[in-house]
Each structure stands twice: as C-alpha cells, then as structure tokens.
Design a protein that fits this description.
Radius of gyration of chain B: 25 Å
Number of helices of chain B: 11
Shape of chain B: extended
Largest sheet of chain B: none
Order of helices and strands of chain A: HHHHHHHH
Strand content of chain B: under 5%
Oligomer: heterodimer
Number of strands of chain B: 0
Distance between the termini of chain B: 92 Å
Largest sheet of chain A: none
Number of helices of chain A: 8
Largest interface: A-B, 52 and 43 residues
Helix content of chain A: over 70%
Radius of gyration of chain A: 17 Å
Number of strands of chain A: 0
Distance between the termini of chain A: 58 Å
C-alpha cells in the first residue's frame, strides 16, 4: 500500500470536510473548542483505520459516522442534551462565523430554528440542510434506513412550519 | 414553505473554522499521520513473518506435524513422501477449519516445500522423476496458499494476505530454480538461455502482479498505481517476447512456443488493465492472478515436453 498516496487522500479529505465536520459537531454540542477537538479526532481515527489497510468506501460518510459516534459519546458523558442557546451566547467566532450583522442574524435565526427540534431531528436536519448530504448518506451515517430518515426529515419540517406559523 | 425552512437552515453553513483554527488543526493532524505512519510501519515489520500474529494457531499446527514426525524428513523419491504429503498433510489441511489455523498450516507447508527443494538441489543425484514430484507438490501448495491469500483478503487482513502472497512468490521462485536445475542438465545452450531469460521475466512479472494485488486489495483508489503495474508487467513480457523472437529466427523450435505463451500473457494483462480502467477491480484482480498462474503452468508444461522429447 502506498502510504504517500493515502496521506495525500487524507490531506485532501481534511481540506474538504473539516469545516463541515466541525460545524456538525458545533451545532450539536454548542461547544466550539470541543467541536474542534472532535473534528480533528475524526480524521485521526479514520487515518488509523485506513492505515491498517481497511477499506473506506465513502470517506465523507465514514468521517461523519465517526463524528456522530463521538458526539453520542459526548452526550452520554455529559448526561444531558445541550441547548444551542449556549452557542448563541458564546460560540461565535467573529472572524468567520458571521462577517456582517445581516449574516450573523441569519445564522442566529437558523440556530433558533434548529434549537426548536429534539436532538434526534436536529442532527438529521443539520446533515440534510446545513451539510447538504443526501438521504442515502445520512442513513449510512446514522445507521438507519433511508425511509426512516426521510420520514424524520418530513416530521422535522412539519414541526418547523408549525413553529413559523405561531 | 419547505423551501423557506431549507433556506433558513442553510444560513448555518456560514459557521465554520477560522483560517487560523483550520491551520492549527491541519498541522496537528499532519503530525499525527507522521507519528502513526512510522509506528505502524515498525509494527508491520515486527510481524512480517505473518504467522507471528497467529502464533497460537501455529502451535496447534506444529503439534500435528510433530505427531507425524516420522515422515517429516521424507523427500520426493522416498517411500514415506507420498504418506507425508498426501495423507498427513491432507489430514492437517482438513482440520484447519479456522482462518488462523489455515494461515498457520499454509506457512508450515510453504516452509516444508522450500526446505525440500533446497535439499533436493543440494543432492547432485536427484532424478528427473523426483523433480517432477517436487514440482507437483509445489503446485499443490501454491494453490492452497492462494486460497489462504484470498481468505485473508476477504477478511480484510491485508497485511497478512501480503505475507502469504510473498510466501507464494517464494514458492514460485523455487519452481524457477528447479526449472533452471533441469535446464542445466538437459537443454542446449540456446534453449537454456531462453529459459533463464523467461524465468527472470516470470519472476519479475510475478512480483509486479503481487504488488498490484496488494494495491488493488488494500486500496482500490490507487488504480493509477495498479495501472502502472499492469503497464510495467506488459513491458517486461514484451522484452521477453523480443528476445524469443530473435532466438526463433535462429531456428530454436522451443522459442516459438515460449513466445506464444508470453504473447498470450501480454493479452491477458491488457484485458486486466481494461477491467481496471473500467473500475471492475474484481475482474482486474482475477486477470492478474490468471496471468500469474498461466505463466507458471505453461512454462512447466513446455519444460516437461522438452524433457520428454530429449529422453526419446
């Protein structure tokens, strides 16, 4: 196995997916520093796996699946669901996350919407509409059927529509 | 309304790492890869005789072989050799039900065949019939090893599969040594040169095919590397074909037959490369294995025919 080529693949994967993984963890944990650590840990775990010669069919799915598992562990350790309100108060990085007051307002609005959802629905909506992942990949990441994912997306949209109409 | 929801949520895409945060994480990850590459390479080197990992299995297999120790030292030509290979070893093969045991038994059989080849080679009075038996047993063990390689690949144990494939390559090299030994005694100078040349090319092609097998099995994304291997193997075989063409014009009858074999192998490799380009990795792997087997088998057949004609 050419470790040089593998390394290049991982460097490319880091450039492509690190922002998304960080965002996914950030929106689920409301903890910027921890989200950064977990995003990095995802790549480390994937590297260890691939370097043993194990095949990775879809790098993006593989990385998000690791992220999902690490976030679940984090939830378990903290023993309570994390509110995105914390993120609203402390989590923004002024350099990148909201460059103008309008953009910051839009991001805050998105977070407000996500915060209305239970964690199960929130994670799916983040993967679908923030990370733009197809239903098939979301199903692989969460270990659910595509039908179950589609149903949850539909329910989450209904909830958000009810919230918007209030 | 759904579009409104989507649009509102997509605004969160503006969240992300700052340039400095990303650079910091990237540097940390690159350092991690450096550290873990060297550690991993070291651990692979340590277990390179791949039965290290299956030490327990190896012990069980060894117990079987000790039990039948009376026949263990038998060589082709000895009365006990048939008992050793066709009775004792068959029993052990049948009992090797787990992959670990299969691997351990493979390793033991490989070592036995190589040791027997060496002992026959040392003995200057080894007869052609004894070499024939040896070649047959090398073939049987090669097939068994191939099964083991495939099992390990299926199980995703690529490092061990590579170890087993290397063992098989040693076996095929022993095949080459035997052919060389026979050619020294039996053939004319021109034919001997052809055989030596082809043996060298065969060995090189085997190595390339095994490297390709490793690339294909452990990392399908490295198809460019595998493609280069296919190209390289074809170039080597084309060189062999050119050599044979020259000898053919000089009136060596066997050169024509050998050239035909080589040309067919080139065609098989070309088909394998086409499969690789079409991302049909299974087919590519199959073609590379077929080519390897074809080369080995055809050379043995030609060798045997030559011996037969000389004996007549």
């Amino acid at each position: 196995m050419g470790s040089g080529n593998l390394r290049k693949q991982f460097e490319g994967a880091f450039d492509r997916y690190s922002d998304g993984l960080f965002r996914y963890c950030f929106l689920r944990l409301s903890d910027r520093e921890r989200a950064k650590e977990i995003a990095q840990e995802c790549f480390m775990k994937a590297w260890e796996y691939a370097y043993k010669g194990e095949p990775i069919d879809n790098m993006r799915v593989f990385l998000y699946r690791i992220a999902h598992n690490l976030v679940v562990n984090e939830y378990r350790d903290r023993k309570h669901n994390l509110s995105l309100e914390t993120l609203m108060e402390t989590g923004f990085d002024q350099e990148t996350d909201a460059r103008t007051p309008e953009e910051e307002a839009e991001v805050r609005q998105a977070i407000t919407w996500l915060d209305k959802l239970e964690p199960m629905y929130r994670q799916i909506m983040v993967l679908r509409y923030v990370e733009d992942l197809p239903v098939k990949e979301i199903a692989q990441i969460l270990g659910e059927t595509e039908t179950a994912v589609s149903v949850k997306i539909h329910r989450a949209i209904k909830k958000l529509q009810q919230f918007a109409n209030q | 309304m759904q579009r409104d929801v989507e649009k509102e949520l997509q605004a969160a895409q503006k969240l992300g790492l700052s340039a400095s945060e990303k650079a910091e994480l990237r540097a940390g990850f690159l350092q991690f890869m450096d550290t873990h590459t060297s550690e991993r390479a070291a651990s692979r080197a340590v277990r390179s005789p791949f039965f290290m990992r299956f030490y327990a299995g190896a012990l069980i297999a060894a117990a079987f072989f000790v039990y039948v120790g009376s026949a263990e030292a038998a060589l082709p030509g000895d009365a006990m050799y048939y008992f050793k290979t066709r009775v004792n070893e068959n029993v052990v093969r049948t009992l090797a039900l787990t992959p670990e045991l299969h691997t351990a038994v493979t390793r033991t059989l490989l070592e036995r065949r190589l040791e027997e080849t060496t002992r026959l080679a040392i003995n200057t009075e080894t007869k052609t019939q004894e070499w024939d038996v040896m070649l047959e047993e090398l073939d049987r063990t090669s097939v068994y090893t191939q099964d083991n390689v495939e099992t390990l690949i299926d199980r995703g144990e690529f490092a061990d599969a590579i170890g087993a494939a290397e063992g098989q390559r040693a076996l095929l090299s022993a095949h080459g040594v035997i052919l060389a030994g026979i050619s020294e005694q039996k053939h004319t100078t021109a034919t001997q040169e052809v055989i030596e040349e082809v043996q060298q090319q065969q060995k090189y092609a085997e190595q390339i095919v095994i490297n390709m097998l490793n690339s294909l099995s452990s990392q399908p994304d490295l198809n460019r590397e595998a493609e280069e291997s296919f190209d390289e193997a074809q170039v080597v075989l084309k060189q062999a074909s050119s050599t044979l063409a020259v000898l053919n014009t000089e009136g060596d009858p066997q050169a024509a037959e050998l050239q035909e074999v080589i040309e067919q192998a080139i065609q098989m490799l070309a088909e394998g490369e086409d499969a690789l380009v079409a991302e049909d990795y299974d087919e590519a792997l199959l073609k590379s294995e077929e080519t390897e087997r074809f080369l080995t088998e055809e050379l043995v057949i030609l060798q045997t025919e030559e011996e037969f004609s000389l004996e007549l």
